[in-house]
Amino acid sequence: MLLAIETSCDDTSVAVVHRGRVLSNIVSSQRRLHAEYGGVVPELAARAHLRNFLPVAQAALREAGASPPELEAIAATQGPGLPNALLVGFTAGQSIAFALRRPFLGIHHHEAHLYSPWISGDPPAADFTAFQPNVSLVVSGGHTLLVHVYLEGSPRAAPADPTARGQDAVVTLHRVLGSTLDDAAGECFDKVAKLLGLPYPGGPELDRLAAEGNPAAYEFPRPLLREATDDFSFAGLKTSVRYFLQKHPDLLNDPRQVRDLCASVQAAIVEVLVAKTMRAAKRLGVGCVTASGGVSCNRALRRDLAAACRREGLVLRLSERSLCTDNAAMIGILAERKFQQAPAPASFDGEISPRWTLA
Ligand code: KG4
Ligand code: ZN
Predict the structure, then answer these.
(1) Which residue minimizes the CA distance to atom 24 of ligand 1?
(2) What is the pLDDT of residues 125-166, one digit of tens each?
(3) Which pLDDT tens digits describe the chain residue by residue (359 residues)?
(4) How far apart are CA 85 and CA 352, in angstroms?
């Protein structure tokens, strides 16, 4: 059994995983705490993690029916994330590992998101052969990544990655194809929602209003849609909404026009995400597309990705809604896999890496 901890932003989460199965996954969201500030306040997030950590960890052990001596390893998010928030979970994890004399693993938050579509459903996470080469979209408040995920040793594998040498099991590898040049997709949702006076976090609220609006009512830019790059850029879209509202301030007083605006902005974001994901999938000849991260809860994104994959004959794996946003289960599933692959026990000399980028 492995205990996993996630405290990179505003969710305190602890999970217990065993052989690819999630025995418990407790998430305590700080959403309400930050709502009155309109965004995550790092200092408050760290203090709340400190307050929440022990009750959340105890609940995770209780729900899993696990006792500390049964834990074979401990893992925690090492980065990227808010430094003080990361420190709480990472230090707690190291301390537990030290006290129990167990190995400790620091995990990359975005790499863990790649695993969340495989945690539940069919086939389950333990069956990693289901990781046929795929293109993975990771869309969150802090990151927008397009990643090529493949198996070393499988007949359909991409060229060997030097970091995998020396490991003889089938290894899941990844290569980042593109990322955002400025704002993340979730940040764009949240900032546009703020311009519209919607409560934080704006993404889910904008999604809700957009469902009743006309996506063709207003035309907003589709940044980098046609350019031959897998990178994204959403800052310009947010700015164009700001200019639009400066020109049409009365629009905010009409709920119907607000819904149309939400639907139109959402359509622009979703079209870019879906088109670029599908283009990369076709170029690389993969048979599967996956999506994870908070924005992958978005209903229009899920619907349009599903339609595009159906058209192209590709398998689509979406994270279960509860696993789209930050959670420790994804940290644990990845950590367990790393733990099984790396014979040497992880050491305690790691430090948090708030700016760690996925290669
Ligand atoms: O993965 P996550 O919980 O945290 C980060 O690692 O950032 O993602 C949070 C982000 C926020 O920007 C939130 O507004 C967005 O995901 N989000 C959504 C939806 N649900 C969450 N964006 C659009 N539509 C949604 N339904
Ligand atoms: Zn995340």
Answers:
(1) 298
(2) 556 556 578 999 999 998 899 999 987 554 344 444 433 333
(3) 999 999 999 999 999 999 888 999 999 999 889 988 888 899 999 999 999 999 999 999 999 999 999 999 999 999 999 999 999 999 999 999 999 999 999 999 999 998 898 887 665 655 655 657 899 999 999 889 999 998 755 434 444 443 333 333 456 788 999 999 999 999 999 999 999 999 888 999 999 999 999 999 999 999 999 999 999 999 999 999 999 999 999 999 999 999 999 999 999 999 999 999 999 999 999 999 999 999 999 999 999 999 999 999 999 999 999 999 999 999 999 999 888 877 666 677 789 999 998 88
(4) 10
Contact of 278 with 307, CB cutoff 8 Å: no
Output the ligand 1 site: residues, CB below 6 A: 9, 140-142, 186, 189-190, 201-204, 207, 293-295, 297-298, 325-326
Closest ligand to C-alpha of residue 319 is 1
CA 84 to centroid of ligand 1, rounded, Å: 21
Q: Determine the Cα–Cα distance for residues 211 and 259; give it in Å rounded to an integer.
A: 8
* Cross-strand pairs, 6: 13
Nearest-atom number in ligand 1 for the CA of 297 is 26
Q: Which atom of ligand 1 is nearest to the CA of 186?
A: 12
In the chain, alpha helices (H) = 31-35, 42-64, 83-100, 109-115, 185-195, 202-210, 235-247, 255-284, 299-312, 321-324, 328-341
Identity of the residue numbered 268 = A
Spacing, Cα 280 to ligand 2 middle (Å): 22
What's the gap in Å between 97 CA and the centre of ligand 1? 31
Query: Rounded to the nearest whole angstrom, what is the distance from the C-alpha of residue 110 to the centroid of ligand 2?
Result: 6
Interatomic CA distance for residues 190 and 170, integer angstroms: 39
> Helix H segments across 211-254?
235-247
How many angstroms separate the CA atoms of 143 and 295, rounded? 10
Report the predicted TM-score, pTM, of the whole model to 2 decimal places: 0.91
As beta bridge partners, residue 179 has 145
Whole-angstrom CA distances from 202 to 90, 194, 198, 280, 301 are 29, 7, 6, 29, 16
